[in-house]
Amino acid sequence: MKKDKMFYKFALYGFLKNLRFFEPFMILFFREGGLTFLQIGMLYSVRDLATNILEIPTGVYADAFGRRKSMLMAFGAYIISFVIFYVYPNFYVYGLAMILYAFGEAFRSGTHKALILEYLKLNDMSKHKVAYYGRTRAASQFGSAINSLLAAALIFYSGSYRYIFIASIIPYVLDFINLATYPPELDGELTEFKRDQISGQIKTTLATFAGLLKSPNTLRTMMNSSSFTAFFKATKDYLQPILKSFAVSLPIFLMLDQTKRTAVIVGLVYFVIYMLTSYASRSAHTVSQRFPNLSQAVNVTFLTGAGLLFVAGGATQYKIDALSILIFLFLYVLQNVRRPMNVSLISDQISSKVMASGLSVESQLTTVLMAILAPIMGALADKFGVGAALGGLGLLMLLLTPLTWVQPVEEAA
User: Model's pTM, two decimal places?
Assistant: First the structure.
């Protein structure tokens, strides 16, 4: 496999794209701006719902007008959203910024992978696609790993969470320029834009969902995957206030103010998280082999995740922050171990002809659940504290276990 100029362009894209300095500090940024946890949960819901609603029309746009233009549109939307977050500290304006961010996610989703696959096909290198994509993805993982350290350094020297958005514009402008230099032949064969393409795709997705209702075990498999991901996404960023509390309680770095002490701890912990999740994704197959079948693997890990979330809530409530942090580390690992297993199990139960629509249904279910859970988490955190909110969602997840319990595929109805 040759590493030519385009290989390094693809790798550079992934590295720069993952320099989202705000991600490890998102909740702390919003809290610094005076937002309640409920308002933060509502913003998360707006972002995820908008992303999923926009995925179908933006996918049609990419097919009709070109993948490169779609990617440039994505990064343009990202950059504008970063500017709004930095300039206008207001809840309602943040909602607009989240929608613009969702435009970026929708335009980008799956498009760059298509660009790489098109390049490999044109250069008769398709047989190397696993190794080629894996090596370009390694640059993305490296970007994620050092992102938290760079973000921590920015906050340490600026003394404010606000500057992480304006700083994020720099790598995204560079990536915009990088994408603009991609050769036009990577757009692939363009299709004529037709309005009925959007409605047709929506009908296909709805038909796939209707088909799933006829197979209770397949529906439970979808619920197992989507509900775990939704609970994880709704709670994972609450590690940030826990880390802040932990940082303030430590008898070290006493010469620094709270923001700088928090930046150091958050940066280090998230660096460890990204390193662990990178390893976890590669280890999913090894973990699944420890169980008699994939169904048991996803059932046990779902139940484990629910129990861990409940215990994390109790530990946070009683100020055992170190235990809460360790549990969150394990939850991040568990999510990355589960994801390949869930996709594999879904693929065992859905025809390859409707696989894309099936995964789209799973994504839509995740979004709907996330949109419901995020405000609930925020409201509970405002009223009873972060620990009680985490424990409450952990308990709810445990109660949902019977609805997500998957039978072995060979026994499915």
Answer: 0.87
